[in-house]
Structures are given as C-alpha cells and as structure tokens.
Design a protein that fits this description.
With 213 residues, the protein is of the alpha/beta class. It has a 7-stranded mixed sheet, with helices on both faces. It is globular, with a radius of gyration of 16 Å.
C-alpha cells in the first residue's frame, strides 16, 4: 500500500490518482500517526479511498521534544488551508473531502464552506468539552452547506446522543451513531457490542459517503 511521508509533510495511504481523496487532521492530544489515525487511514485505503494526513504546527514541535499546547484556532485553520491546497492540487478543492478526529474534525467543519470542498467527515466531533455541556461548539453547524458526515459514539463525553438531539444542525449534516462508542468510537467489553463489527460498519459508512460524493 503506497505510503509517503516526504510529500510536503503529508502522509499518504492508498491511491493518490483517480480515486476519492480525503484529507484528515488529528485530534488535540495525538498526532497523525496515532493508532486511531493510522487504523482509519489504512482502512479507508483498503476500500479504494486515497487518504492524506498532516500535522498541525504544535504537534510537529512536540515531535522535536518541545512541550507546547495546541495552537490557537487561526494557526490551526491556516495549517489546514495549506494542507488542503497541497492535496487538492490541480484537481481543485471541490474534488476534496476534508475532516478529522475530534479537534481536527472541528477545524475542518469551520473551513468546509469557505474552501468549497466536496464533503466533510468528522470522527468524534467535540460538541462541548467533557463535563461542560454549556460550552457548545455548534453555532456554525446550523448553517453548514457542505455535505457532512459526523460519526459519533453514543456515550462520547464530548457529545452523547442525548446531547446532540438538542442541537440545531444543518440538514447537510448526517450523524452516524456508534452504539456504546466512546470518543474513540470504541464500545465497552461489557456492552455486548462486537468492537470489530462495529468498527467495520462505521468505517464502511465513511468510505461509502466519500465515494458517493
């Protein structure tokens, strides 16, 4: 499976030509090579989707041994814009699906309409910080025009199913619920939910969403 990290700090999985292209950003605490991001990218690549991953500036500094907090939103957004332009290339941004895990997905959702991308995929969207349900991050989601898929665990501390049903979300947004899933979309052993079957299902939903676009 083609993988190339030397492509302007992009890490590719799967075909780069003549396929659906997805650009994914990581969450706040782990970089583009985290187990979750690697699993997701490889699984989509196995389904014929070309996936590019990138890292925000603060995470690259952490790799160099510098302990820094996540960048502020303007820096994160500019890094995402730059990566999107690199991945889209001559095909144009309207050929690209963007998204990411948690914070990465949130940044993508703030750029989707601006960039005019083909679609948006968010894995574990941070609707609010854990235990702070009043600090919502949903205002822009009410007016989102880009076709969007949010994959969310029913017990995600950043937004459960009971939480999300209260929010006003755009008709362009579809939420795919992962039964008993946490912020990493993983069910508990005692839930009785088969973790492998659950993961295969939601990944297939993501791949199908991308291909249909």
């Amino acid at each position: 499976m083609p993988r190339n990290k030397a492509d302007n700090e992009l890490l590719w999985d799967g075909p780069k030509r003549n396929s659906a292209r997805v650009l994914l950003a990581h969450g706040a605490g782990a970089g583009m090579e985290s187990p979750f991001m690697t699993m997701l990218a490889r699984a989509l690549a196995e389904r014929g989707v070309g996936v590019a991953r990138f890292e925000f500036p603060y995470m690259r500094r952490r790799r160099q041994g510098v302990r820094v907090p996540p960048d502020r939103a303007p820096v994160l957004l500019e890094a995402f814009r730059s990566a999107a332009q690199k991945v889209a290339g001559k095909r144009g941004l309207d050929s690209l699906v963007i998204g990411g895990k948690s914070m990465g997905g949130r940044m993508a959702s703030m750029l989707a309409d601006e960039l005019g991308v083909r679609g948006l995929v968010c894995l574990g969207y941070p609707f609010h910080p854990p235990a702070q349900p009043d600090k919502l991050r949903v205002e822009h989601l009410a007016a989102l025009n880009t076709p969007s898929l949010i994959v969310q665990g029913t017990r995600d501390s950043f937004g459960t199913r009971d939480d999300v049903r209260k929010y006003k979300l755009s008709a362009a947004i579809r939420v795919e619920w992962v039964e008993d899933g946490n912020h990493d979309l993983a069910p508990r052993k005692r839930s009785g939910v088969d973790p492998v079957a659950s993961r295969e299902h939601w990944i297939s939903q993501v791949a199908e969403f991308v291909r249909e676009l």
